[in-house]
Design goal:
This protein is mainly α and 258 residues long. The chain has one domain. Helix content is 71%, strand content 0%. The protein has 11 helices and no strands. Helix 2 packs antiparallel against helix 4 (60-90). Residues 15-219 form the ABC-2 type transporter transmembrane domain. Keywords: Membrane, Transmembrane, Transmembrane helix. It is a multi-pass membrane protein.
């Protein structure tokens, strides 16, 4: 009698493969995840051309590119995963998975992996497109952009699980992500760079979840982030991620909300 030994990686990979198949069948989620983030940067470009960016040391490209990355993380990762977690919970999929070999972290990680990979691929595509179409030079500090992107994916996945904890149905999963998405789009430097905001308001917006991601991606191209600023920005992103992980451990629901 032979036994098959599985590892956390193999179990998460199998779950991610099944989740990717289900994701491909959800046309509404695919549309929001794949096409909306490609359209919204056009409105940011129109708005950027009306701003006095030179005074802040920015160009339309260094405004549009971080915004495009932010849109992709919000729609392809955060919003999409809220729906995934809620629907799988209400369909008792998560409850059944917990009766097998998969651990809680593996279930959430494997379920999030397809959306995370889609978001990563989309961000890379948007970066290449913005660089070509907006005459952006090569990034001055590419490690900052990579760090911001990876932190953003992890944070958005964790925040999605938190939001799903307080979302009752698959229909309401289309609404509950909106507060964070709206606040992020308006206050995290995606539509209006923080450099153009009043100092007090900018200081507050620096503490929003997605602001560190936008700041790091922009800093990757401009190269104007000091070591102190980089450390503070990374610390903010890590703090939000750890807070979200704690909230998931505390409040995430594995069975349907009745």
């Amino acid at each position: 009698m032979s036994t098959t030994t599985t590892t956390p990686v193999s179990r998460m990979t199998s779950l991610a493969r099944a989740e990717l198949t289900l994701l491909g069948r959800s046309k509404g989620t695919l549309f929001a995840a794949l096409f909306v983030p490609l359209v919204l940067p056009l409105s940011v470009r129109s708005a950027a051309e009306e701003m006095d960016l030179a005074e802040a040391g920015l160009t339309p490209g260094t405004v549009v590119l971080p915004a495009a990355v932010g849109f992709s993380l919000l729609f392809a990762v955060y919003s999409a995963l809220v729906g995934v977690f809620v629907v799988r919970r209400e369909e008792l999929v998560l409850k059944r998975l917990r009766t097998g070999e998969l651990r809680d972290g593996e279930i959430l990680g494997g379920s999030a992996l397809p959306a995370a990979l889609v978001g990563l691929a989309q961000c890379l595509l948007l970066a290449a497109g913005c660089t070509a179409l907006l005459d952006l030079p090569a990034p001055s500090a590419p490690h900052l952009a990579v760090l911001g992107l990876l932190l953003g994916i992890a944070m958005c996945a964790a925040l999605a699980a938190v939001t799903a904890s307080f979302t009752r149905t698959g229909e309401s999963a289309q609404v509950t992500p909106m507060p964070l998405m709206i606040v992020s789009m308006l206050g995290s430097g995606m539509f209006v760079p923080l450099e153009l905001l009043p100092d007090r308001l900018a200081s507050f917006c620096e503490l929003l979840p997605l602001t560190p991601v936008v700041t790091l991606v922009r800093g990757g191209w401009t190269g104007d982030l000091s070591a102190y600023e980089t450390l503070g920005t990374v610390a903010t992103a890590v703090a939000w991620t750890l807070l979200a992980v704690f909230a998931v451990q505390r409040w995430f629901r594995w069975e349907p909300r009745r």
